[in-house]
Design goal:
It holds the Pfam family Trans_reg_C. By secondary structure, the protein is α/β, with parallel strands linked by helices. It contains eight helices and eleven strands. The chain has two domains: 117 residues, Rossmann fold (3-Layer(aba) Sandwich), CATH 3.40.50; 94 residues, Winged helix-like DNA-binding domain superfamily/Winged helix DNA-binding domain (Arc Repressor Mutant, subunit A, Orthogonal Bundle), CATH 1.10.10.10. The strands form three sheets. The chain has a five-stranded parallel sheet, sandwiched between helices. Strands 6-7-8-9 form a four-stranded antiparallel sheet, with helices on one face.
């Protein structure tokens, strides 16, 4: 796996670089966000790891830019500190994961493998639930004949719901499947994500298919 480290901390990058190389990763470390964006656009990067002291507005803009390309490169943030609000902002900006250092090598590697599984295109037939249609291999979705404008995270969340129509999905299930941040303290990430999807797939069409089950989770109406 080839990783690009964007070191905004000035101290974590060199240590992380050495540790990753020792574990068999191919690693490049830079400190300029504009170069990181350029490197992610030309390809051959499996993930960008952003190292920072604490997530800042400029960091969120960098995440959004890297994640908006046609050939989207996964983004992981490694922060010295981050509270729940920081986590929500980083994930909503388009990051695939956020970790707080120190983090064990085993956990770091496992999270990268999980991201690789989620971001590898899954070819398969279209999925239809009621008037919703989703094409996993094209990363496109429609309500009736209207194509939906979904972010990568919103698309992934909708795909999980459409693969389990009519089933009650807990916040923990959605965290594991879409964010891979598996503990209840950050379940507000799911609430915000579902709200964003609902605004795209239901409200413009006068629908109420993505339902909240109070105290339990969410359900996409089956028909």
């Amino acid at each position: 796996m080839e990783l690009l480290i964007l070191d905004l901390s000035g101290s974590v990058g060199p240590r992380l670089h050495a540790s990753l190389e020792a574990r068999g990763y191919r690693v490049e470390t830079i400190s300029d966000p504009s170069i990181a964006l350029w490197r992610s656009e030309i390809g051959n990067i499996d993930a960008v790891v952003i190292c920072c002291d604490r997530p800042a507005l400029d960091d969120l803009a960098t995440i959004a830019e890297i994640g908006s390309g046609a050939e989207r490169t996964p983004v992981v943030m490694l922060a010295a500190s981050a509270d729940d609000t920081d986590v929500v902002r980083v994930l909503d900006a388009g990051a695939d994961d956020i970790m707080c250092s120190p983090v064990s090598s085993r956990e770091f590697d496992a999270r990268l493998r999980a991201i690789a599984r989620r971001t590898t295109p899954q070819l398969g037939p279209s999925i239809e639930v009621g008037t919703l249609r989703l094409e996993p291999h094209e990363r496109r979705a429609w309500r009736d004949t209207h194509e939906l404008d979904l972010s990568p995270r919103e698309f992934a969340l909708l795909e999980v719901f459409m693969r389990h129509p009519g089933r009650l999905l807990t916040r923990e299930f959605l965290l594991d499947g879409v964010w891979d941040v598996a503990y209840l303290g950050r379940s507000n990430v799911v609430d915000q994500g579902v709200s964003h999807v609902r605004r795209k797939i239901d409200r413009p069409f006068g629908r109420d298919d993505l339902q909240t089950v109070r105290g339990a989770g969410y359900r996409l109406r089956a028909g």
